[in-house]
């Protein structure tokens, strides 16, 4: 497995230098040791690692990793602690000049290897890449904050959270953080009913679930600064074009607008949208292959390069049409713009059955790649028939005890190569012509489902530990109802240049009536909407 990190990769911080390629070895092979040794030359302070072992194979691997890393730099010192009451196996990083309190419970390999190396560098005195204003905000936080993040090593969204919380710990001695691999520390994950990653705890209580960055976290724990930020946003001059959204369509619209030389802003909760849950992307022209996290970072970097004023994390809850369109946000901020481009994207479609929303993150899941390792040796189900559903089933079959596929039709509609792979799996059962009618749970976690036989109308049940729902996407347009014209399915109705039913308001991407929900098509529709908005500005003077 090889991971490549580039200094221009965007928001997720890269390691020093132009590029760094990590190939996960038996622990560290010679090439990786040579690369890592070069990066550890950036250390200016000692890094004291306290290793808390147990008798598990993970502990043995952790001991070997720490031994090999410490051999690469005289400034990395490892001691063993067999007595403290901490999660095991784990290790904690500190420095005489920086009691960072960064811990890793579980082996930080896979997607978390970069988090480990960055923690080494930052605890050892190498300055983190963070805006001065943000760094000052972190240092000025009052109170004590102990964060814990449950991750899986196959989750591509988890490193953003781990690296953000590690950064807070480095800059503020009253903040500490431990990464917990839920697949390795299964007893701890089970005790807290962890069935979705990343799941974040703060001072012993659940804090948040899902991908977050530094600014997202600060907005939740530093409410006074959030109010100040909302005020600063409200004082901004009116934009010529304001893009609402953070996915492929929004990014393309913002870049095309900015390149026209007009005052362009973009407001979003986060960058990437659905791409962040896309493991492999192979249909972008001129790019043979990439992944969603990397591609999102590169898109954001390009948006910033074009001088777009990005306001994030901000959630838009209402637009008010007028000569100047008002865009109102959940934070209390209000923006004004001559034209707006709506690109809110789409979210996972729900089954809308009893027990579903109550158990999201407690056995009801949507990303097999991220959450699958938490269901190791358990019985799970997949609902859906397309490529996404069958890909999820194949992923889950590699870790779960058994996977049941629920189909409303006689057969799945996925590509033949996926169906052939599915048919070869020994731990898969396919139930056809059935419909889930309820998801059951006990003690705040899923324990089974009820389903209807569509031929006989009989109701049957099945004991399960998890249900992965893969039935498509739904447009994120609830907040637009009554403002612009929508289809019965909630899609924004647009014409050939992205115009909506409201003058000056354009739309693009998966939330619109544009057919074929694909990244390249979303980017094209974003460019079209930007050109349409620019033409509108010219004609309106």
Q: Which whole number gives the mean pLDDT?
A: 91
Q: Using the coordinates shown, work out and report the CATH topology of the largest domain.
A: Glutaredoxin
The CATH architecture classification of the largest domain is 3-Layer(aba) Sandwich
Largest sheet: 8 strands, mixed
Q: Label the structural class.
A: alpha/beta
Number of domains: 3
Please bin the fraction of helical residues: 25-40%
Number of helices: 14
The global form is: globular
Task: Give an overview in words.
The chain is built from 14 helices and 27 strands. It has an 8-stranded mixed β-sheet with strand order 4-3-5-6-8-7-9-10, covered by helices on one side. Strands 11, 12, 13, 14, 15, 16 and 27 form a 7-stranded mixed β-sheet that branches. It folds into 3 domains: 2-221, 3-Layer(aba) Sandwich (Glutaredoxin), CATH 3.40.30.80; 234-346 and 475-540, FAD/NAD(P)-binding domain, CATH 3.50.50.60; 357-469, 3-Layer(bba) Sandwich (FAD/NAD(P)-binding domain). It is of the alpha/beta class and 541 residues long.
């Amino acid at each position: 497995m090889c991971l490549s990190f580039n200094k221009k990769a965007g928001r997720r911080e890269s390691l020093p230098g132009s590029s760094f390629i990590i190939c996960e070895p038996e622990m560290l092979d010679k090439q990786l040791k040579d690369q890592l040794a070069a990066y550890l030359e950036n250390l200016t302070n000692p890094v004291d690692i306290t290793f808390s072992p147990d008798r598990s194979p993970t502990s043995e691997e952790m001991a070997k990793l720490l031994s090999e890393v410490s051999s690469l730099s005289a400034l990395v010192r490892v001691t063993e602690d067999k007595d403290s009451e901490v999660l095991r196996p784990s290790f904690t990083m500190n420095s005489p000049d920086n009691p960072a309190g960064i811990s890793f419970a579980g082996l930080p390999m896979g997607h978390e290897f970069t988090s480990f190396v960055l923690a080494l560098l930052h605890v050892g005195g190498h300055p983190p890449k963070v805006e001065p204003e943000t760094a000052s905000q972190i240092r000025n936080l009052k109170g004590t904050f102990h964060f814990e993040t449950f991750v899986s090593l196959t989750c591509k969204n988890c490193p953003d959270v781990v690296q953000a919380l590690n950064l807070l710990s480095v800059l503020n001695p009253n903040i500490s953080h431990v990464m917990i691999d839920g697949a390795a520390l299964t007893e701890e994950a089970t005790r807290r009913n962890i069935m979705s990653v990343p799941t974040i705890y703060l001072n012993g209580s659940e804090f948040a679930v899902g991908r977050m960055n530094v600014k997202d976290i600060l907005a939740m724990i530093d409410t006074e600064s959030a109010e100040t930020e909302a005020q600063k946003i409200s004082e901004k001059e009116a934009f010529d074009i304001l893009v609402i959204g953070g996915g492929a369509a929004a990014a393309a619209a913002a870049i095309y607008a900015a390149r026209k030389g007009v005052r362009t802003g973009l407001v979003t909760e986060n960058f990437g949208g659905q791409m962040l849950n896309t493991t492999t992307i192979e249909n972008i022209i001129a790019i043979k292959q990439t992944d969603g996290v990397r591609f999102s970072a590169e898109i954001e970097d390009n948006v910033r390069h074009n001088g777009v004023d990005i306001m994030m994390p901000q959630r838009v809850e209402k637009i008010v049409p007028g000569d100047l369109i008002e865009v109102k946000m959940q934070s209390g901020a209000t923006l004004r713009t001559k034209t707006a481009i709506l690109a809110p994207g789409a979210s996972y479609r729900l089954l809308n059955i009893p027990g579903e929303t109550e158990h999201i993150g407690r056995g009801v899941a949507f990303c097999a790649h991220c959450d699958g390792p938490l269901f190791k040796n358990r019985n799970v189900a997949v609902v859906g028939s397309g490529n996404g559903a069958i890909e999820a089933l194949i992923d889950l079959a590699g870790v779960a005890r058994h996977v049941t596929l629920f189909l409303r039709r006689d057969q799945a509609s996925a590509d033949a190569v996926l169906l052939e792979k599915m048919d070869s799996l020994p731990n898969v059962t396919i139930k056809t012509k059935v419909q889930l009618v309820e998801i059951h749970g006990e003690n705040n976690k899923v324990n089974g489902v009820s389903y209807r036989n569509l031929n006989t109308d009989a109701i049957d049940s099945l004991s399960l530990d998890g249900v992965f729902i893969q039935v498509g996407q739904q447009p994120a347009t609830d907040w637009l109802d009554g403002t612009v014209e929508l289809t019965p399915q909630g899609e924004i109705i647009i014409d050939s240049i992205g115009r909506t039913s409201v003058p000056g308001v354009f739309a693009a991407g998966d939330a619109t009536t544009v057919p074929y929900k694909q990244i390249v098509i979303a980017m094209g529709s974003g460019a079209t909407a930007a050109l349409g908005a620019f033409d509108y500005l010219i004609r309106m003077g």
